[in-house]
Amino acid sequence: MSSPGSARVTMAQVARRCGVSLMTVSYCYNQPDRVAPDTLRRVREAAAELGYRGPDPTARSLRRRHNDAIGVVLGEHLAYAFEDPQARRFLAGVAEVCRERGVGLNLIPTTGQDGDVDRVKSASVDGYIVWTTVDSDPVLAVVTGLAKPVAVHGGPAVPGARVVTIDNRGSARALAARAFSGARRPAVLSFPFGRDHRPRLETGPDPESAEFPVTRERLLGIYDHCRDAGLDPRRLPVAVAARNDRAGAAALADRLLDADAVIAMSDQLAFAVLDAARRRGLDVPGELAVAGWDDDPDAARAGLTTITQSLHDQGRTCALIALGDRTPPPRPEWTTTVRTTTRPMP
Question: Residues 240, 200: contact at Cβ < 8 Å?
Fold first, then answer.
């Protein structure tokens, strides 16, 4: 038997021990139905005696030119995949396709550090999914230059990749028409503008300063409605959250309670506003209208008006693209789900 630290036993050694060809040993592991039962038994016994552990999966992947795995580039620390409700629903859709197709899932966290590019490039995967990232992310050029299929969720759009996202600008315009109806002091609780994740409160920030396309498009859509309604977007308070985190956005939500309507760029951020309103004893929607995005499972219980979209289905679509599906996917659907946290429209 081989001992720990000894050289790896090879398939050729097993073949010599049994007096069979290398191809026969290979068939014993990869297509055993093609080998006579007695030969299969002898090869397995010899392999056990020698300590042969089976074909090297890395070498086998190189020969077959595929790895049976999808890489998901998160653009966040690894725990984000399990903490963020949007990411969890999206990854559930990806995982569902992986189970159906019998392939693995490789989560690749990137945080804007020097090692990101090498980590992504060295991943043994057949295709990539990039979770929404900033326009300048160097990872985009890497994944689109590897001659593998690439799906980008949320954006940005880059040559060599297919983007899967709802019409964020159009949905924002529609949501603002509902949430800001009758409002004189509207405000926004926004996703981060860039990878610095710096929380702040600004007045009428330029949407083009947002490096994340989803943030930029949603803010542009809200500004579109403000102009439609005769409101000056340059006077609109915009609180920029560090992350999509209900507890983490609590302090910013408190600073928006002088408004009479708040659009939050996710349901989790909208829940932070509802929590703050409850602590202040404000009537929702009489004194403060609130709306969000995604139709989180808790949104119905909270009576939250929101943009409904299926992140699970978008995850499935991205996974199929990363596995080489060339069928152009339809643009994901969205609807405005009106509940009790916004006022009736005239």
Answer: yes
Tell me, yes or no, if the pTM score tops 0.85: no
Give alpha helix (H) positions in 229-310. 250-254, 267-280, 299-302
Q: What is the mean pLDDT of the chain?
A: 92
Intra-chain end-to-end CA distance of the chain, in Å: 82
What is the torsional sign of CA 34, 40, 44, 50?
Answer: negative
Q: In this structure, what token pair is assigned to residue 178?
A: 């509902």
What whole-number distance in Å separates Cα of residue 95 and Cα of residue 325?
16
Q: What is the residue whose two structure tokens read 């983007």?
A: 163
Q: Does 3 have pLDDT greater than 70?
A: no
Query: Does residue 56 carry a pLDDT above 70?
Result: no
Q: Are 293 and 161 in contact (CB under 8 A)?
A: no
* Polymer length in residues for the chain: 346
Q: Rounded to whole angstroms, how far apart are CA atoms 130 and 139?
A: 9
Going along the chain from its start, the domains and CATH numbers come out as 11-55 (1.10.260.40), 69-164 (3.40.50.2300), 168-308 (3.40.50.2300)
